[in-house]
Amino acid sequence: MFSETAVAKVDARPYFERVLGHALKEGLVDEARLASIRREGAKGIVQLAGFFGTANLRPELEAARTRLVTLVGLALEAEAGGQLDAAARLLRDKSLLALSKAGAERLRGLLKLPTDSFLEPPNALNEDEKVFLSRWTFDEPMTFARYLLERKAREKNHNLHELSYWLAGKFGVSRDEVQGWHVSCDSVVNSVLLVLFAEKNPKGFFSGERFTKLHEAARKKRKHDFSLLDAWREEAPPALQALLDRAREHFLSDVLALIRGHEAIDLYRRQERFSGLFFFDASDVDEVTHHDKAMEEEWRRITGGHGDHTDVQCTALLMVATGLEPTPVLRKKDAIAIWQHFRDAGFDDKAVEAFIETVVPFEYQADVLRLWQEDLGPEAGVKLDDDIQAHALTYLHEACRPGWKKKP
After folding, report:
1. Nearest in space to 315 (alpha carbons), one of 168, 182, 174
2. What's the mean pLDDT in 243-249?
3. How many CB atoms neighbour CB 85 within 10 A?
């Protein structure tokens, strides 16, 4: 049996404070160094307060203290591997300003990595640095354990991006062109694997029409091999080889089952269910008439070539109605932004009408306007007027073309 005195106490203090206490207790930091730490801390607090706001207001200075403690603690724990003795010696030998800078650089390293597996131009992926640093140093102070989890998740996304670019490059498509598609990594990888699986002489990415032929060939095929894939794997960077192996297993176990269980037209048209499964090359489909070339290209870009799909139209309309840049697939963070904006200010009907008039092709305008005024607008106005975020996200996941997986 455990006695009451056997209950362990958990030290919940920030890591920097734990290291400082340990250093003083063990004599690793003397009075002279402690005085220096106090001076460095005061200087660092003023600098951080000035960077994030102003150094003249007490709340900003108090927030800056939390930021400094967070950044220094992150650097100490990362460099010392969580060992208090080693961290205490670092605190003795390095200035707080140097440690603070090292902690900030670790967070900036995260900022360079993608937050999801959605492919788009680099300038669209960038999070605002100051907002990012503010969040992780004060709003949600970043611990080393959380940093490791965040880095692992973002590195996984980065590798998925690189695999998508690498495979697309094998089909002669540049990184810049892939980023312009605004699609998920899975859709690109699955599409490449489908072509390699179904065609002896792969012809590159496919349109909806060619997909029906690939679909039929994949259904008939019994041998689970891929033309060129083994040779390609040997050429792939080591970091991508394991990912490629997992993608192949996923295709054979899950994607192929969907192909065999559903008609090609269902997989192509029912994007509310099969969103992100494949990428369809829109270069030879969705011919748009009664519209000038510039508008045609803009409509294709916004809808990813799926401008006749209702879920894509709903995605674009709701994003425009809440002041977001429209995309063909709705990411979770944008879904949250839609809900928050609607709760704060409602929908901007004039912006939607202007968008329909100036961007939507002539032959779609009447239907899209009717969709907004008689169906989507009124329904979304009710569904998003909900205090519970999860309810709003469920609705948006069903109404739009989602870029995230719904939890069971």
Report:
1. 182
2. 97
3. 13
